[in-house]
Design brief:
Helix content is about 35%, strand content about 20%. It is of the alpha+beta class. The longest helix is centred in the N-terminal third of the chain and has 22 residues. InterPro entries: C45_proenzyme-like.
Length: about 475
């Protein structure tokens, strides 16, 4: 009995020590250097901020509203520090909202102790990342301070890395249970569905639009696209799921390399510190001339966390990159297809400028399929996502269709997903594709539940074989 009491006292002491260690303030990052910055002007007519200079601004950050819930952030600066600084000065409120939302949602999901542990682990990155990206984080930190926000550099670092850290702590096991038992808004998710324009060969985006379910938290509403040019280097255009622009899910570069990522996680960050994927993806986009070069760069980073990539380019390459146990698996989709894959690949394929052929360079598809969760409110987002999702071949057939002659509403076609007909053995929703030209850009619109008569569309064409 005495031994049992001593053991219980010892165990209680260990628990107290553990709780103390996990809840003790971490303080701020070390080695965050101060830096003098030039005068920055805020200009509503310009749409953002710029470094004061004679003539036209050469260093600036401005927000361009491209419609819907999408915004395009255009950043021009001489170095990575100013990239971060100008972004923070231009969208500081969104960044702070994002950081607050991450803290709340992750804490609700995983609990305070595990949240604290993830924040502690994020400091591995501060020692491991390249100087340029450490400069960017520092620039964001200083920009937020200059906008009057009370933040720590460590909070900014965590905003860049939290998705790689939170889900590989014990939260990955305990979190779902905690979430279901204690989270008040049970069943709610911050979902998103995206629709993207096609990239021009010169690196510009023809048009970009996204659709999203209503955000559960104010920091997760809009989507942002970010365009960077540093010292005349190639444009890197990336897309964040969140308004704070810390994450990175999809991107393009001026060579037409396009990538979309799904299911990112890291298992070995403590053993092998490295760039968080936010920066790794940007770095690969910055230097890659085609899809193969992108994949080669990514696999050489030593990252254990690449699962489910799709990469395309203007040469027509389409690659799937997957992490399987201890090795990367690279599939040439045009050559080998997507054997044994699952529906998320369909979302990824249709969320990048995929199937870039001569026939498709001026096509823009509205709307796109979700890359993750299916939204619950915006019915237009469900056109390709309903009842088991459209199959890969069907999506390719839709994208390959080219009406002859002048593009008018009379060229509309009707399409009934074949796999749904077989599944339901009944008449189902009909999608009418309407082709139009607006401002010289060819677009596809969809309407559903239409009486199409005899205009059913079934195409044998596989654009990947063209």
């Amino acid at each position: 009995m005495k031994k049992l009491i001593l053991f219980l006292i010892f165990a209680a002491g260990l628990i107290v020590i553990l709780i103390f260690a996990l809840t003790t303030s971490l303080g701020d990052l070390k080695g965050v250097e101060t830096r003098e910055v030039p005068e920055v002007v805020k200009d509503e007519a310009f749409g953002g901020v710029y470094v004061k200079t004679e003539g036209e601004p050469t260093e600036y950050c401005r927000v361009i509203d491209v419609g819907g819930k999408s915004k395009f952030l255009q950043v021009r600066a001489d170095d990575q520090y100013m990239i971060g600084y100008l972004k923070a000065r231009a969208i500081s409120d969104e960044m702070i909202s994002y950081m607050e939302t991450v803290d709340k949602e992750v804490t609700d999901y995983a609990g305070s102790l595990l949240m604290h542990r993830a924040k502690k682990k994020s400091r591995y990155y501060w020692k491991a990342i390249d100087d340029r990206y450490r400069d960017e984080i520092t620039g964001v930190y200083h920009g937020l301070l200059d906008e009057g926000h009370d933040v720590k550099a460590a909070d900014v670092l965590f905003a860049y890395t939290w998705r790689e850290l939170v889900y590989v702590t014990l939260a990955v096991r305990i979190g779902p249970i905690y979430y279901k038992l204690f989270y008040k808004d049970k069943g709610k998710e911050t979902g998103g569905c995206s629709s993207f324009g096609i990239l021009n060969p010169d690196g510009s985006v023809i048009i970009a639009q996204t659709i999203d379910s209503p955000p559960q938290s104010k920091g997760f509403g809009d989507y942002y696209f970010e365009e960077q040019r540093i010292n005349g280097e190639d444009v890197v255009t990336t897309m964040s799921s969140y308004a704070g622009l810390f994450g990175w899910d999809m991107g393009w570069n001026s060579k037409g390399v396009s990538v979309v990522i799904n299911n990112m996680f890291t298992k070995e960050y403590a053993k092998e510190p490295r760039l968080p994927y936010t920066f790794r993806g940007r770095e690969a986009l910055r230097i890659a001339d085609d899809a193969y070069e992108y994949v080669e760069h990514w696999t050489k980073t030593g990252s254990p966390n690449a699962q489910n990539f799709m990469v395309t380019d203007l040469k027509g390459n389409l690659l799937r990159l997957e992490r399987s146990r201890e090795e990367f698996v690279i599939t040439d989709v045009k050559k080998d297809g997507l054997k044994g894959t699952y529906w998320e690949d369909i979302g990824m394929l249709t969320s990048t400028n995929t199937f870039v052929t001569d026939e498709m360079k001026h096509l823009i598809l509205f709307p796109d399929v979700c890359t993750g969760r299916q939204p619950t409110a915006d019915t237009t987002a469900k056109k390709y996502a309903a009842d088991g999702r459209v199959t890969l071949i069907e999506m390719k057939e839709i994208l390959a269709y080219q009406p002859e002659g002048e593009i008018t509403d009379e060229n509309a076609i009707c399409y009934r997903p074949q796999h749904l007909i077989e599944k339901n053995n009944a008449s189902i929703t009909v999608y009418q594709l309407i082709f139009a030209v607006e401002d010289g850009v060819r677009k596809i619109y969809l309407k559903e539940n239409l009486d199409c008569g005899d205009k059913d569309y079934v195409s044998p064409v596989d654009p990947l074989s063209r």
